[in-house]
Amino acid sequence: MEQLLLHLRNLGFTEMESKIMVELATKGQASGYEVAKQLGVSRSNVYAALQRLTQQGYVRCGEGEPARYSVLEPEELATMISGRVQASLAYMENEMPRGGPVSPSFYNVEGDRNVMGELVRQLNLAGQEVVVDVWREEASHLRSELEQAELRGVRLLWAFDGGNNVPAPYPAWPPLGGKPRRNGGRKFSFVIDRSWCMLGMRYDDGTAQAVVTEHPVLVELLLNHFTQEMVLFELEQDMGAELEERYGDRYSRIYNKYVMHEQEPEEEEQADLKAE
């Protein structure tokens, strides 16, 4: 019931209107007094909402005293709402003023539903290219949109992490100052048509955070990062044995020397003694 009310509100109905429509659909038909009594709200509010719904065509008012109301069948209701929404969207798209250029900005998206919703919208708008750097868990949620983009002729460039046991191809920078790192997160990035990008983190508990922007600096950084990952991967595939033979353990240390690992407490104490 709560989910139905939520979706009705998402379609533009007020909470009162949503409850009245569900009540009428459950009873078949009822008077305003009966609806108000069942919902435990004032009759004036119910009659005002019924009048709006009747004028809009979602509810029918029968003859008689007292008047009895009924809501359209779900199929009729869906058709009417869909037609009006599509007409409003078309009008908005054609008539909305188009201003001057807007400086690129960054904005945050919080929550798994909002993050995935934003990605779905942008993937459906992709016209030329999508660059994807995700874990397989996240890619599976967007499989349909990515497949549809490819069917439209959009070029897809992929980079996947396969699971928690797969080592990252680059060193992980530890937090500084003793700040704890939140575990269980999987980074992801999308660059669409080389003009829009999202960089974020999705956690095992279902929460997610992301930054979205059209700023060319971050777009270019993500594209360069993707390119470097792919080049490094192919080099390791082609020359893995040779690199191991030539560099040995030094190969991994080439990466690690650029990451300032936090000192253990014992190491910090020894360093302080040496300084004295």
TrEMBL record:
<dbReference type="InterPro" id="IPR051797">
    <property type="entry name" value="TrmB-like"/>
</dbReference>
<feature type="domain" description="Transcription regulator TrmB N-terminal">
    <location>
        <begin position="8"/>
        <end position="75"/>
    </location>
</feature>
<dbReference type="InterPro" id="IPR002831">
    <property type="entry name" value="Tscrpt_reg_TrmB_N"/>
</dbReference>
<dbReference type="GO" id="GO:0003677">
    <property type="term" value="F:DNA binding"/>
</dbReference>
<dbReference type="Pfam" id="PF01978">
    <property type="entry name" value="TrmB"/>
</dbReference>
<dbReference type="InterPro" id="IPR011991">
    <property type="entry name" value="ArsR-like_HTH"/>
</dbReference>
<protein>
    <submittedName>
        <fullName>TrmB family transcriptional regulator</fullName>
    </submittedName>
</protein>
<dbReference type="InterPro" id="IPR036388">
    <property type="entry name" value="WH-like_DNA-bd_sf"/>
</dbReference>
<dbReference type="InterPro" id="IPR036390">
    <property type="entry name" value="WH_DNA-bd_sf"/>
</dbReference>
<keyword id="KW-0238">DNA-binding</keyword>
